[in-house]
Amino acid sequence: MTTFIDFHALQTLPPSNINRGEDGAPKSAVFGGKRRQRISSQALKSAQRRDFKDLLDDSQLGIRTKQIAAEVADRVTKLNPDVSLKDAQKRAADAFKKAGLKLTVPKPNAKSDDEGSAPTAEQTGYLVFIGNHQLDRLADAIVKKNGEAFSKKEVVEIINTEHAVDVSLFGRMLAEDASLNVDAAVQTAHAIGVTEAQPDFDFFIAVDDVSEREEETGAGMMGTIEMMSSTFYRYSTLNIDQLVHNLGDVEATLRAVEAYAHTFIQSLPAGYQNSFAAHTLPDVVSVAVRKRPVSYVNAFELAIKPDGDESTATKAGRAMAKEAQQVSDLYGYVPSHSWYIAPDATNESLNDLGESTNFEALIADVSQTVAEVLNDRAGE
């Protein structure tokens, strides 16, 4: 049976705009009949991918680009300087085409028309998410082939096995050939505020230093930034079986789980952070290992009303713990393992979220639990 790890977090942000829409305003959504501040799942995953670089080597990570042929060609010329860049680009493009991808020469621009500029490699029509080590392996194979053509099977074996950690977690979709798709091991919800949204505006002016020195009056620039403050509920679920399938290795899976747990807890989008510095950490984190993923978002369908007696995060934590207990009592979905992190470890109202722990111990316990699950599977 499939094993999932559910990640839940409550996190309070002061006035900020870390994820804005096309109008520049903080993103929002209606839930339970009330408008809430929202952080998109795409922004949350992008923040995690950024922070993976602090935890994992580049060889374990992927790159998202249209310029896959150019990336491979650069590697080819480093491995064998006798191969010209133009020839390396052609060999790389031919290899990807053999796998079923469509590449074309992009429209020329002023820079590409300059004398002495590097030749322009063919590109895909959309971003391709592929592992750095897969690009390395393809470049090595091109050098060893020494101009000999690839078969489709050879290229697919290189670019569609032993995927990078972030590709394995978040998946890949290629329009030309569904067989090259990678099913994501992670599903991520849009984070929503547990209270009704209260937008506000920051009016700012910027002074022209030279004009001020010359005692001229008036602002050099002025404008407004929309901002909101919310306690967010964040949720994602990690399919361990899919992750093992994508990575093809138990040790790589454990590294990926640790990196994912670390970044889920600590990563945030960086929008307007220079202006707001909303660098908070979660008020409550809950992690549960179970056979079916379950979100606790319905704990907040009725928007929490702030008051002066206790914090919104405290009320939200109590509501989340109650929802967790109801899931167990009504449906029998009792986690095999569960833990929580909260500043007040003696708060009995959170006991339904599992065993109280801290950040470092949580990462270690989750990793150890996954290792035990995989070892048990191997012995079956």
Describe this structure in words.
- This protein is α+β, with helices and mostly antiparallel strands and about 375 residues long.
- It is built from 13 helices and 14 strands.
- The protein has helices spanning about 40-50, 70-80, 85-100, 110-115, 130-145, 150-160, 165-170, 210-215, 240-245, 250-265, 275, 310-330, 360-380, and strands at about 5-15, 30, 35-40, 60-65, 105, 125, 130, 185-190, 190-195, 200-205, 220-240, 285-290, 335-340, 355.
- The strands form three sheets. Strands 1, 2, 3, 8, 9, 10, 11, 12, 13 and 14 form a ten-stranded mixed beta sheet that branches. A two-stranded antiparallel ribbon has the order 4-7. Strands 5-6 form a two-stranded antiparallel ribbon.
- Helix 10 runs antiparallel to helix 13.
- The protein is globular and about 75 Å long.
- The two termini are about 10 Å apart.
- Which H/E pattern describes the elements? EEEHEHHEHEEHHHEEEHEHHHEHEEH
Number of helices: 13
What's the N-to-C terminus distance? 12 Å
Mean pLDDT metric: 91
- Beta strand %: 15-25%
As residue ranges, the low-confidence spans are none
Largest sheet: 10 strands, mixed
Helix content: 25-40%
Q: Can you tell me the overall shape? A: globular
User: Could you tell me the radius of gyration in angstroms?
Assistant: 25 Å
Helix/strand structural class = alpha+beta
| Strand tally | 14
Brief sketch in words of this structure:
This protein has 380 residues and is an alpha+beta fold. The chain contains 13 helices and 14 strands.
